[in-house]
Amino acid sequence: MIDGFADDWPQAPHAWRHFQAGGDTLAVLCGSSGRYLYLLLEAHDAAPLYDAPGVDLLDPAGFGDRVWLAFDEGEDNALEGAPQRQYFLATTGPGSLIAHRIESREYGRRVAVPEPRIEAAWRGIDGGYRIEVRVPLSMIGARFGVLLDDRATRGATPVSLGNLRPGDLEAEGRLLLAPPELGAYLRQFTEAGVQLAVGSARGALLAEVNALPPAPSFGAESLLARFYRRLLDGGEALRAPQTEPGRMAAASARAAAGAETVTTLERSADDRRLIVAAASPIYDASHARVIGVVQVAQTEERWLLLRDRALARLLNLTLAATALAVLGSFAFAARLGLRLTRLRNATETALGAEGRLVTQLPEAAARDELGDLARSFAALLDRLEAYTTYLRTLAGKLAHEIRTPLTIVRSSLENLENEGVTETARPYVARARQGAERLGGILQAMGAATRVEEAIAGAERLAFDLAPVVAAAVDAYRQAFTTRRFELELESGPCRVEGSPELMVQLLDKLIDNAIDFSPEGSRITVRLRGERHEAWLEVENPGSRLPAEAGTRLFESLWQSREAQEETGVHFGLGLYVARLIADFHRGSMEAANLAAGQGVRMRLRVPLLS
To answer: Could you tell me the residue range of the domain that residue 224 belongs to?
Structure first.
């Protein structure tokens, strides 16, 4: 409809032609449909000016803004130098109008003759006006042009915007129109997999026959494939041509500008195919001017796709093999590190806090070098365990071997005293007897561990309440050791454990002996029994000197003691706490020793599991 509205026009920004002069702008859009040529003109004018009403159309005093059209009259008159027809559009207000042409009559009289075949509509818009024009194609030859005369006041000298030659208003531009039969003509030369296109010298698409195959079924390339292609193409990835609808690719524009054939390799608009295109210029009959471009295109993804697939498969396999090798190396290193960590932890804890050796090491069954190392460590620990066992039993063996000579020494001293001894020899005999008694005490202490081990081996496990056993023992200590004060703290409920009451009393004897030896006279010794988290805790606290730093791990070892000086009559061979540890092991418990938090003193603690 010729109504001055633009909503029924295609949105084709590339097809507009713009002219600018004196601060005003004229935009022209040209298109054809059926038998007509359509024009859409938008004038951006701050002060639109219409013709004066009631004044002759040819009177300069009434001229407002006017639009001129000039073209060759029909295709038969399209020869070079043939006269052209000029038509103007003028109106006294918005609305429909028709074009007029100027004719000369007798005596040089000029008249404005209406041309009803050229219809137009003039409509005001923001900042100017819009004119829609329809011209039959049968009226137009090869050349065509448009011009806007913009006036500030009626009758003033205009500012012209357009492509008509000033003065005679001759059209120099050409109107390129694709005839309907052009597509059928191109189909004669096409074949499968080839695209033919014809366009203007400025790249406007006039006709196209597309026989390109459909996009490959494998879909768009992956990021990894695109990365491979960038490597193959020297870092320059092929990109889809940035073309607007109705326009040809950039290759056609370069061919028209350079008047030579141009070949390019680029991606299709859907970015899924590779297109090789060759564009060549089309000359006029005189071969003096480029009037169009013909372009032939076909897909080239076949060999590129094969190359890319082969390379991608090779690189993917290489990357996969490399990744597997790296992961395998990391896995082997992690497993080796874990095995070394286990072996290190086992060797660090082979010697327990109670002096016992663990000779079974992890990885000893392995057949590699790490297994050989573990077996070597295990053999060394076995030899150390045998030597340690020998040292633990040395005291009992010595006691058995020394007991008979010691008995002979004692009987000889007694016989010597009965025979009579001089006064000068009596001190020596007394010292010999004291040494024999001291040696006897040592033998008794050395044999205590052996007797306890034998007692433990033959002891029978019974379920008993530990509270009355501890209470009875503490009452006996109050009567036996009057120089110390004993305080008993018992659990309110029963404290049932499994073991031997007699052995538990011996363990408590060793702890009390130790507490008495290291506490001053008149001090208080606390015995505490309580249950916590399925365990019974038997604690003996005494004031006195603190434990040395190294005593934490060696205090319950055999033949080790931390006394700085021995009493003249006392025998301390470092076996009391060792015996306590043996009894604790029999009761499936453990012994601990720690300094008291406040002041001087030591706490000995037995942990033994409670019966459920």
So the answer is: 181-299
